[in-house]
Structure formats: structure tokens, C-alpha cells
Write a structure and sequence with these properties.
This is Glutamine ABC transporter substrate-binding protein. Helices cover 41% and strands 21% of the residues. The chain is built from 11 helices and 15 strands. The chain is globular and about 55 Å long. About 5% of the residues have low confidence.
Length: 273
């Protein structure tokens, strides 16, 4: 009987600790925390040219989204604020956010109804669309041409479902990251690599013999993700985005990273028709 009572008491203690921890997570106010620390920790890409790529020369992650995160941090917290960066992948960005390892995700993340069930998004900051990357001598001209062919995509992205929607007879091979997917394209494991046009543009700029085809066949707006219920943080990000667009900072960053890429429409990416 005493053993049962001790076990029950231990169970109550552990359960209480669990509830306390859960409550603390639920009541966490990220906006107030970053204001106090004067730092924001962003989850970013480190494997995607133009958006976020680890530089061999500097040992730092560089790209459009890193520059934007730095600008947002200073707009939200002040010119002396610090932006910290944590490398994320398609599979890790939501868990890292949910666990409190990062304050926000700025990593070419498409706003979708499914993701909105787990996290909240800012207003769109980049209007992407899914496209195809092929070899220069490819006969593929559009997504419809992928029926009966093999498309290469990354796990955890919206690209897989979109291929099946627009080319139901296409086969899709999934990889852990964009580097693996492009290596598979070079090796002839598929006829086209597919993801958002901005990501493919980055790959095309550093690999001769490859091009984007077919324009965009989806509307894939990117949003900055925060954990569910972090309304203050989300609103602060939205206000900062508006200011950066008004003062020209945002436009300058888009042009810095995406101007001069054949077939890429900067105004479209900025949300202008």
C-alpha cells in the first residue's frame, strides 16, 4: 500500500511539473522577451543561394532573408539591436519554433492553411511561385510536360503536392535538401527540379547549362512565422515590414539579390502586378 502511495505521489509531482512547464510555454511572450534582451533569434536557410547560404569566405549565412532579418531587427528594437541566426531546414523550422529555440522563421516559408494550424504568419514579404529547373537542352516547356516524367523536390515543402495537382501522372522523388535534389537532376534521375522560382533562380545563377521554364504555375507567398498566439511579435514584424517598404529598404534588398536574373520578375516578387 505504501509503495502504491509513493508511486502515486511521484506521479502527481511529475504531472504537476509537466503542467507548469506547459503553462510557461503557453504564457511566453516572445515580443516582450526580445525587447528585454534587445536581440531576435531568426531561423533561416543556410543552403539556398540568394535567400540564405553559408559563405565559405566569411563563415556566415548570407542572403536576402538574412539582410531582411537584420533590417527588421533594427526596425523593431532599435539600431543597436542584434540579430542572431539559426540554420533551419524544411523539416526542422517548425519544431525549432514550437520548442522556443528561435523567435521567428524567415526561411522561404510558404503561407498555407495546413501550416496555419500550427503557427502564425506575418503578411507576405515575397510573392513566389513554383517553377521548373531543367537542363538547357530539355524538351520540358511547362508543368504539363511533366506527366509521365520524374520531378525532383524537397521533403516537407509544398512542391510535392503541387506537382501531383498540376501533373498527376508525374513521378516525384523527394530529397532532404535542395543540394541533393539538384545533384539528382545533374545525374539524370529526373527531368526537372521543382520548387519556388526564387530558389531555382539561385541555383541557375551558379550552374551554367540550366534554366527556368514554364513561368510560375502556383502562387506561393512567403511569410515570417511565429509561434501560435504570439500576436505582439507578429504585429511588430508587420509594422516593421510596412516601414521598410515605405522607406525603400525592402526594394533595395530585393534588387540587390535578384536583379539581372533572366526570367525573374522583381515587381511580381514584391507583390506588384
Amino acid at each position: 500500500m505504501k509503495r502504491k502511495l509513493r508511486f502515486f505521489s511521484l506521479f502527481i509531482v511529475l504531472f504537476s511539473v509537466f503542467l507548469l512547464s506547459a503553462c510557461q510555454k503557453n504564457t511566453r511572450n516572445v515580443y516582450q522577451e526580445v525587447k528585454k534582451s534587445n536581440e531576435i533569434t531568426w531561423g533561416v536557410k543556410a543552403d539556398t543561394r540568394l535567400f540564405g547560404l553559408m559563405s565559405i569566405k566569411t563563415g556566415k549565412i548570407e542572403g536576402f532573408e538574412v539582410d531582411l532579418a537584420n533590417a527588421l531587427t533594427k526596425e523593431i528594437l532599435g539600431k543597436n539591436a542584434k540579430a542572431n541566426f539559426v540554420q533551419t531546414t524544411a523539416k526542422t523550422k517548425i519544431p525549432l519554433l514550437k520548442n522556443g529555440n528561435i523567435d521567428a522563421v524567415l526561411a522561404a516559408m510558404t503561407i498555407t492553411p495546413e501550416r496555419k494550424k500550427q503557427i502564425d504568419f506575418s503578411d507576405p514579404y515575397f510573392y513566389a511561385g513554383q517553377s521548373l529547373l531543367v537542363k538547357d537542352d530539355s524538351t520540358i516547356k511547362s508543368i504539363k510536360d511533366m506527366n509521365g516524367k520524374t520531378a525532383l523536390a524537397v521533403k516537407g515543402t509544398t512542391a510535392v503536392a503541387n506537382v501531383k495537382k498540376f501533373a498527376p501522372k508525374a513521378k516525384v522523388l523527394e530529397f532532404d535538401d535542395y543540394g541533393q535534389a539538384f545533384t539528382a537532376l545533374k545525374a539524370g534521375q529526373g527531368q526537372a527540379m521543382t520548387t519556388d522560382n526564387g530558389l531555382l533562380a539561385g541555383i541557375a545563377t551558379e550552374n551554367k547549362g540550366y534554366k527556368l521554364v514554364g513561368g510560375t504555375y502556383t502562387n506561393e507567398p512567403y511569410g515570417i512565422a511565429v509561434n501560435k498566439g504570439q500576436t505582439q511579435m507578429k504585429n511588430a514584424i508587420n509594422r516593421a515590414l510596412v516601414k521598410l517598404k515605405k522607406d525603400g529598404t525592402y526594394d533595395a534588398l530585393v534588387k540587390k539579390w535578384f536583379s539581372g536574373i533572366p526570367g525573374f520578375n522583381i515587381k511580381e516578387a514584391e507583390g506588384e502586378k
